[in-house]
Specification:
By secondary structure, the chain is an all-alpha fold. It is built from nine helices and no strands. 9% of the residues are buried.
Length: 152
């Protein structure tokens, strides 16, 4: 089953018309895009995959794996820019604690904090600025220290 056929089957399973999916996507998708995706005429970006995973109530990573299983899955087919690839590489270099911290920040900023697994919602121990500087590999501004200097 192709990715398009899978998405169409999910839409039918939920009893959604294409128009209903358009409405539920809150402007991310239009009727033509959904039709082209379902017929294999349009590749799917990670953003669209995320939106569809929420609409169809499927695990986002399950959907991403189906995209990767398609034989032409490339950086371009995911709609990933070079800047995003560089950020991904930096993320992969972080320690496990910093990864959890970063995910918490990102999910909180995007309003998707509830999507984090429960074990990642609590950071085991507060990070020290020195540790963060060492992990990130470039200077991190200590705003609290700057504020102290302004007061003095």
């Amino acid at each position: 089953m192709t990715l398009g056929e899978y998405l169409k089957a999910l839409r039918h399973k939920h009893g959604f018309s294409i128009k209903q999916v358009v409405i539920k996507s809150k402007g991310v998708l239009d009727k033509a895009s959904i039709s082209r995706i379902e017929h294999g005429q349009r590749k799917i970006s990670l953003n669209v995959a995320y939106v569809l995973s929420k609409i169809y109530e499927v695990n986002f990573m399950e959907l991403v794996n189906k995209i990767v299983d398609e034989k032409d899955a490339t950086q371009e087919s995911f709609g990933i820019t070079n800047e995003e690839m560089n950020l991904l590489e930096k993320f992969r270099q972080l320690s496990p604690v910093l990864r959890v911290s970063f995910k918490n920040i990102l999910y909180t900023m995007t309003g998707a904090f509830s999507d984090l697994p429960q074990h990642e919602k609590n950071i085991p121990e507060p990070l020290k600025l020195e540790d963060l500087k060492e992990q990130v590999g470039y200077p991190v501004i200590d705003y609290q220290e700057e504020d102290k200097n302004k007061v003095e």
